[in-house]
Amino acid sequence: MKKKIDSTVTTFDELLEKKYGQHGTPSRDQFEADAEAFILSECLKAARRQAKLTQEELAVKVGTKKSYISRLENGKSDIQLATLRRIIEQGLGRKMQITIL
């Protein structure tokens, strides 16, 4: 069954506001946090696969458990910046750069 599209919504921002509320509301903040976790998890998964590593191999390289890598890749766990840097630099052999906008 297809969902009916609201013809009054003309932009993606309007769609987000209609579904999750204005910026700064609890439901919108949760949506944005979930979206950021999803993006990070997909980037980590893609980088691991590009490095031709299994979750187990990556976990061994960075001194953690496979289950933790799995939770990260599924967006089910928060990550500290130091751990993210260790995974990217030691585990994946890549460099991490942070940009604040």
Annotation keywords:
101 residues; mainly alpha; 434 Repressor (Amino-terminal Domain); 5 helices; 60% helix
Describe the structure.
The chain is mainly alpha-helical and 101 residues long. It has a single domain (12-91), classed as 434 Repressor (Amino-terminal Domain). The chain is 60% helix and 0% strand. It contains 5 helices and no strands. The protein has helices at 12-20, 26-50, 55-62, 66-73, 81-91. α3 packs across α5 (81-91). It is elongated, with a radius of gyration of 17 Å.
Structure at a glance:
The protein is mainly alpha-helical and 101 residues long. The chain has five helices and no strands.
From the 3D coordinates, which CATH architecture would you assign?
Answer: Orthogonal Bundle
What is the tally of beta strands? Answer: 0
- Helical fraction: 55-70%
In terms of structural class, how would the helical and strand content be classed? mainly alpha
Q: Which fold name is given in CATH as the topology?
A: 434 Repressor (Amino-terminal Domain)
